[in-house]
Amino acid sequence: MFGQIIETIVNFIGDMGYVGIFVMMFIESSFIPFPSEVVMIPAGYLAYRGDMNPVIATLVGVAGSLVGALLNYWLALQFGREFLIRFGKYFFFGESSMQKMEAYFTKHGEISTFVGRLIMGVRQYISLPAGLARMNLAKFCFYTSLGAGIWVIILVWIGYAIGATFGADFEITNIIHAFTSKDVTTQESEIKSWTRIAGYSLLVFVCVISVAYVLYWKYKKTKKD
């Protein structure tokens, strides 16, 4: 059922080209749970076929992610914590999720808006504690765009690799099916495997960045003392 809904949305908005990418990435980056894999991987595949420009698709994807994140930031800034908890439950975001996001932001500071964009289940909501904390808007936009950019580039590359591996006749619906169904073909399983490897690589990258960031600030603090 969920897979059919996603496929319908992708097919409908996909006809809009770059505008469709922007809209779907905006949705993915806001409250509504929507897998970015079914947006940017097909975009990369279409770039392989010559139907899209990979650079423009990437920039539009990042722009959509940033605007969606800014919506969450603005909602938190304008309406506060109680509003988010009250209405967040309608978008699978309860008080416990809010507490986790706040704890993550408090522990890691402003850079969490960068690191959080690379973690599944965190990227959609890390903008909320940033808004509540009234984080500097320029820094928020920079860190969010940087994190979203890395993830979008990886997904576009996977889509391009799918075209190079399976050919230009590979159906986009197979890419969507790979992430929305339990029963997948060998090719679809391989696509999921590539994305999983990319996800694990990002986790390692996030750990390295986090450790480096903590060590840097400890060194900076020690130097001041």
Description of the structure:
This protein has one domain. The protein contains 10 helices and no strands. It has helices at 2-14, 18-29, 37-49, 54-88, 95-108, 112-115, 127-132, 137-166, 172-180, 186-224. The N and C termini lie far apart (59 Å).
Q: Provide the β-strand percentage band.
A: under 5%
Which assembly state applies to the chains in this document?
Answer: single chain
- Percentage of residues assigned to helices: over 70%
| Alpha-beta content class | mainly alpha
Helix and strand element order: HHHHHHHHHH
Radius of gyration: 18 Å
Biggest sheet architecture: none
- The N- to C-terminal Cα distance equals 59 Å
Number of strands: 0
Count of individual domains: 1
Shape: globular
- Stretches where pLDDT falls below 50 for ≥5 residues? none
Mean pLDDT: 82
Number of helices: 10
List keywords for this structure.
225 residues; single chain; globular; cell membrane; mainly alpha
Task: Set out the fold topology.
Layout: H1 2-14, H2 18-29, H3 37-49, H4 54-88, H5 95-108, H6 112-115, H7 127-132, H8 137-166, H9 172-180, H10 186-224
Helix pairs in contact: 1-9, 2-4, 3-4, 3-8, 3-9, 4-8, 8-10, 9-10
Summarize this structure briefly:
With 225 residues, the protein is an all-alpha fold. The chain is built from 10 helices and no strands.
